[in-house]
UniProtKB/TrEMBL annotation, chain A:
The keyword Transmembrane applies. Keywords: Cell membrane, Membrane, Transmembrane, Transmembrane helix. Residues 21-232, 435-644 form the MacB-like periplasmic core domain. It comes from the Bacteria. PANTHER family: ABC-TYPE MACROLIDE FAMILY EXPORT SYSTEM PERMEASE COMPONENT 2 (PTHR30572:SF18), MEMBRANE COMPONENT OF TRANSPORTER-RELATED (PTHR30572). This is ABC transporter permease. It comes from Neptunitalea lumnitzerae. Pfam families: FtsX, MacB_PCD.
From TrEMBL, chain B:
Keywords: ATP-binding, Nucleotide-binding, Translocase, Transport. Gene3D superfamilies: P-loop containing nucleotide triphosphate hydrolases (3.40.50.300). Pfam families: ABC_tran. GO terms for molecular function: ATP binding. InterPro entries: AAA+_ATPase, ABC_transporter-like_ATP-bd, ABC_transporter-like_CS, MacB-like_ATP-bd, P-loop_NTPase. The keyword Translocase applies. It comes from Neptunitalea lumnitzerae. This is ABC transporter ATP-binding protein. Belongs to the ABC transporter superfamily. Residues 2-234 form the ABC transporter domain.
Amino acid sequence: MIKNWIHIFYYNIKNNKLFMFLNLIGLSIGISGLIFAILYWNDEHAYDAWNTEKSKVFEVINDMGENGEWYTNPAPLGPHLLEESDLVASYCYLNNWYNGANIYYNGEKEYSEKILDAQSNFFEYFPFDFLQGDKASALEPNSIVLSQKLANRIFGDEDPMNKEITYSNRKMVVKGVYKLNEKSSYKPEAVINAIDERLKHNEDAWGNYNFGLLIKLKNPDSKEKVAKQMETIYYKNKLEPSARDLGITPQEYEAKYGGFLIKLQALKDIRLGTINSGVAEGQGNRQFLLIMMGVSILILILSIVNYINLATANAIKRAKEVGVRKIIGATKVDIIKQFLFETALMSAVAIVISLVIVELVLPVYNDFLNKDLVIQGGLIYTQLVCIFIVLIIMAGVFPALYVANFETLKVLRGNFGRSKGGIWLRNGMLVLQFAIAAFFIVGSYIVYQQVQFMSTKDLGFKGDQIIEIYLRQKNPEAVFQRYETVRNEVAKIEGVKEVSTGIFDLGGGARSSSSFEYKGNNIQGQNMAMDFGMLEMLKIPVIEGRNISTEFASDTISSMLVNEAALRVMDEKNPIGKSVTWNGEDLKIIGVVKDFNLFGLDQDIPPMVFFHVKTIDWMQYNLDKVFVKIDASKMEETIARIETFWNSKIDDEYAFNYDFVNKKYERTYMQYVNQKNLFSVLNIVVIIIALFGLFALASFSIERRMKEIAIRKTLGADTKHLLITLTKQYVVFCVIGFLIAIVPVYYLLSGWLENFVFRISISVLPFVIGFVALLVLTLIVVLGRAYRAVSLDILTYLKYE
Amino acid sequence: MIQINQLSKVFRTEEVETKALNDVSLTIKEGEFVTVMGPSGSGKSTLLNIVGLLDSASSGSYQLLGKEMVGIKERGRAKIRKQQIGFVFQNFNLIDELSVYDNIELPMIYNGVASSERSKRVQAMAERLGISHRLKHYPQQLSGGQQQRVAVARALINEPKIILADEPTGNLDSKNGNEVMELLTDLHAGGATILMVTHSDYDASFSQKTILMKDGMVMSEKQQTKNIDIVVNS
Ligand SMILES: Nc1ncnc2c1ncn2[C@@H]1O[C@H](COP(=O)(O)OP(=O)(O)OP(=O)(O)O)[C@@H](O)[C@H]1O
Ligand SMILES: [Mg+2]
């Protein structure tokens, strides 16, 4: 039986080589798309999955309303919570960022970019396997615990236990070595326990949100309750005393400054959660993952539709075979089995081809996602089996049922070829394909427009030819003096045009943010501490008053500027000369700075306050880079000169590290550029698959209409008439498919555009372009096919039938 | 009306060369009813197809209404086909996806007849051929005889100068066959020029002239002795 089936299958392939090939390739591309998406999906879902504590551990996040979400917390919160709540098992303060620094051993240095400062119970939260040392007691002040890899890098074959190393001018003893788990929200190369000291300094500082905080609940279901308890603790310990100090009631205080809203997010949900999170490894890109999944499923549907279409169209050609089989006693079930068998063969081949495609394209894909995905592990193979089964069901059952239900008599009488059976199904599928293709064309055009908009938008500053050089602090007492020395020396280097500093990142915001009150309005401003000449270097205009200048002694003592956004909140028409009490200091406004994009284009321009670094003493502790503007024509050699100077005079411990201001800002929307590129590629894939399908279907249907064409020609129809007759229906399907796509595309792309504050609005242009493109492609394919048909000798088709 | 001179048609395939028409010459005058007879493969259909401009000759001359037809392009042939020629085939060649009405209407669409005029003419033609009550049906729902009447209606709808019929009764029983023959005789009586291929002597007896073909050559041409009196209902 099977031999007979294989024989027929082989015969069919031989007779429909081109269509079978197109079909198979389409299916393979569709499957490889899905495999790509699944690999990504599996990788992201593996995060923290190993962690036995994942449902009990929660990240504490403060929702600050307009001021966004804060992932840091004040030091007293944890102890208070543990004391007052019997739902909480423990807490663990830790930095939610890594420090990158040299570790010295025996006079040798080894740079680690992921050193984490956490409380001693960190390994109860991230229970990495300990190869050496005791998990429970390894972490203590003046001890360091190393990952196996880093231990190897520092100590080689030597036993690291109890060896003394130096980190950040402190001597520390290695008390443990753990094996890192790769898929973890915290993935430190080394863990130290210096945070307790800082916590102690901040014991009562309810206003200093400086520390990441994880808590462990006895029962994960009590998360809402615990969040409420925390809000109450804030209310009692922070809000009530502050209100008392101001001489107002707590209610008045809350109305003015806002209350507290705590969100707890379980570790298991952090990676792909809908709540933003501040863990050191960052979150996965949930939206992009969903887009990938959705898009790849659409493409697979497209190729399955092709398959079904061709299989049913082909089935008509095979009607005779089926009819004969029935007459010699095959039951419906036999025939369904045969067709499922054929689909299974096709699917198996397609999966093999798609694995080859995936294997070939994986390096590019990994580059694109910045990952190391591999086809490996039981999971992906199980999923492949599922894909296989789903394929057989989706692609096989339809055509099989369709064929099995042929009316035997009609088939044998020979007039089945032009019966209407299955036409509706096929046309419906064709419309679906047009809709998917239209969705892609329009959607990717909108994405393209937004990316284009972002890369050409006037940001309000000019970062051309400006580099920022990272300056590591040495003596915390004299940061600014050191900077001044560096500035004066660098300025002398040939090719350097301007040198200054600003304690902020373009694209990332200021290093600190403080609130101040003006006319009863509360302004949460970005603290834009800077040196003279910084705004000039960035070509950011001062639109009212003046900039800080060396000519005024007061400009390093009491002068400040605000930007337009700050001014709007302050509600002040004539700001120049007005006094502001800022963190207890009296500052005078001397100018207004024109708004510019301090954050990425997904965020609004925040209120900003500008002053000289010296004005606010503690600002200098965040000073860690020097901005240098370089002569465009001498870029490379100038940077080389600065590097030589830097390595010999400024910092011989760490490698010279710089970045271009422009490129750094571009990185804030790089992922969207990548998405655009991906969509362009997928767009081509989708269009090719859809056109395959259209071509094959048009071919089949035109072939079936050859006699009709011949008759019409006999009656004197000219070529133009015939082409219209043959093409008409496809144009109608194209239009219907396009109309179907409009609403989803508009809805989903509007959702995508909500990622941005600075965005395009969806115009008719993408729709017009999409429609014209779709129509033109359709016409090319169908007209091409129809023209060939019309040019054929009509007599052949009149004679035989 | 039709002037054929030394017309030849050669079919070339990879292996063989068939001379389907070999120096055929003949003349058909306006208003004549001519039948072509001959054994299978003698080139009857080939001749008819060339006369109907469905095929082109390899050499020789073919003049229709005084104009040379050999060598003109498909566009020009389509134009003459739709204006001057009506076809009736053995296997009817109706379009199954179109209703009887639409089938009959089709040639007028290609001739650019206005739609109100079209509907009038279809109704009148259906009336004349007795298929008025079948206009909404599809070809597959009709008997062979009815289908052939639809085909005749379609061939006549543009009032062509010449009607070409290739074994119009071949697929019909004698009763239906007779009906079709009567129809053609009526048309002839009404002034139509008809060229018909047939295997039946009986059918041939309706015509004025019979051309006998063999191996692509015209063997003989004979005037009909038997004259049929026709009641002309003008
Ligand atoms: N397209 C073609 N290619 C090759 N040879 C052809 C072609 N059409 C017809 N012939 C050959 O030309 C010759 C004449 O064919 P034609 O169809 O004109 O015969 P006929 O007289 O109509 O026969 P019948 O009475 O069986 O219909 C035959 O030998 C046939 O095989
Ligand atoms: Mg013939």
